[in-house]
Design goal:
Layout (H helix, E strand, L loop, with lengths): L3 H13 L4 E5 L2 E6 L2 H10 L8 E5 L4 H12 L3 E6 L13 E4 L5 H10 L4 E4 L6 H6 L1 H21 L4 E7 L22 H20 L2 E7 L1 E3 L18 H9 L6 E4 L11 E2 L1 E3 H17 L3 E6 L5 E2 H12 L5 E4 L8 E2 L4 H7 L7 H13 L2
Parallel strand pairs: 3-4, 3-6, 4-5, 6-7, 7-8, 8-13, 9-12, 10-15, 11-16
Antiparallel strand pairs: 1-2, 11-14
Helix pairs in contact: 1-2, 2-7, 3-9, 4-6, 6-7, 8-10, 8-12, 10-12
This protein binds nicotinamide-adenine-dinucleotide.
Nicotinamide-adenine-dinucleotide binds next to α3, α6, β7 and β9.
Length: 374
């Protein structure tokens, strides 16, 4: 009798390469003819249960990466950060080892993988601005796809076969329904989302061909900070995310907050998003490593709270928390902004035992603490 994992592996292998033959009786495979390539992949996908201890974190000096590094160190992982510091801060990696380098540099990657023996990779490094990706898609395909391939090729060449990848809700585009589950259709509306989806697909094929096991985490809107650890978004960068922009208006650093469109099909006409605390995101990565140790293949999970907040609700909550006036101006919609993006994260909750522990109030309070002091 085959165990559940083998049955699930077989089903996946046939879905990906359906040129075999599988007889199922009362829900159980009784007879299978496999193409040799599929058989080899199955063999490779069995061998990933070595304990994960030493992690390479690409982009670990950035916003989400640095919070995750902080948690990894607390959980006693050995952490090496590889970051070109284009948007990251070297102070943010704490006691982790920092290697300053660029994923475009294959020699630097080869040197790193020869020197250090990693059990798994967490891959945050990317270019992340949606509007910029529309104006300059070349930068996004280069950094998020081509440079990511350099990383995967270094993994394959050096026998490292486990990776957690920072994907995004941007892969869904304008969803047909909310909350969005992982089986929803993916039609990205901008190059940023396209590059994230492309990399997820590359991971699937690298899994089948080279035995790379992956978990892609599709984050919704990351927000919040950890001011007590000196961690938050880099204040020297121009912010396009809503909460830092609203707080800038509360601090008087900008004259007002632009609200892009008030005629959406939502309760108050403004866009609704699922804001997830960066510490809950960091926690999902720790659990993903544990899952990766037991689960072969390429798997995808949403990471969000399942709760949506409109732009006006964020502004109201910020007024209440900061006690400041926040001038706002209603302007035209931005092209490509979906009305509502809210996660169904039941798969993550069920399979990882994960639950969001921070609410919107804690997101705004921690961001306020961080932003007024930096
Ligand atoms: N912030 C969000 O709300 C959000 C939502 C969904 C997905 N994501 C994804 O999460 C990941 C982290 O996002 P973030 O908000 O922390 O962004 P960030 O810009 O703060 O972090 C990215 C890090 O990667 C580094 N980096 C970029 N290109 C590199 C390269 N070629 N070589 C080496 N280092 C490089 C940067 O210096 C930075 O430290 C990204 O992959 C992003 O697409 C973020």
């Amino acid at each position: 009798m085959l165990d559940d994992q083998t049955i699930s592996d077989l089903a996946k292998a046939f879905a990906a390469a359906p040129d075999g033959f599988l007889v199922v009786d009362s829900g159980h495979p009784t007879f299978a003819v496999l193409p040799y390539q599929v058989y080899q992949t199955l063999k490779k996908t069995k061998s990933n249960n070595k304990k994960i201890k030493k992690i390479l974190v690409t982009g670990g000096a950035g916003y989400i990466g640095s919070h995750t590094v902080n948690l990894l160190l607390k959980e006693d992982f050995e952490v090496v950060v590889f970051d070109n510091l284009s948007t990251g801060r070297k102070e943010a990696v704490g006691d982790a080892k920092l290697v300053v380098g660029d994923l475009a540099d294959k020699d630097a990657l080869e040197k790193l993988f020869k020197k250090e023996k990693f059990d798994a990779i967490i891959h945050f490094a990317a270019s992340i601005e949606v509007e910029e990706s529309v104006a300059n898609p070349a930068k996004y395909y280069q950094n998020n796809v081509a440079n990511g391939l350099n990383l995967l090729d270094a993994m394959v060449a050096n026998g490292v076969n486990r990776i957690v990848f920072s994907s995004s809700a941007a892969v869904y585009g304008e969803p047909e329904k909310n909350p969005i589950d992982e089986d929803s259709v993916c039609v990205p509306t901008n190059p940023y989302g396209e590059t994230k989806l492309a990399f997820e697909r590359i991971l699937k094929w690298y899994g089948l061909a080279y035995g790379i096991h992956s978990i892609s985490l599709r984050y919704f809107n990351a927000a919040g900070s950890m001011p007590e650890a000196g961690l938050g978004y880099d204040r020297s960068l121009k912010h396009t995310h809503l909460i830092p922009r609203v707080l800038d208006a509360a601090l008087g650093k900008t004259a007002e907050i632009n609200v892009f469109g008030k005629d959406y099909d939502t309760s108050d006409g403004t866009c609704v998003r699922d804001y997830i605390h960066v510490l809950d995101l960091a926690d999902a990565h720790i659990r993903a490593l544990a899952k990766l140790q037991k689960t072969p293949g390429a798997n995808v999970y949403n990471v969000g709270t399942g709760l949506g907040s409109s732009v006006l609700e964020i502004i109201d909550a910020t007024v209440e928390i900061t006690g400041r006036m926040i001038p706002m101006k209603i302007t035209d919609r931005r092209p490509g902004d979906p009305a509502k993006l809210v996660a169904n994260s039941k798969k993550l909750q069920k399979e990882f035992g994960w639950k969001p522990r921070h609410d919107l109030k804690s997101i705004i309070e921690s961001s306020w603490e961080w932003q007024k002091n930096t």
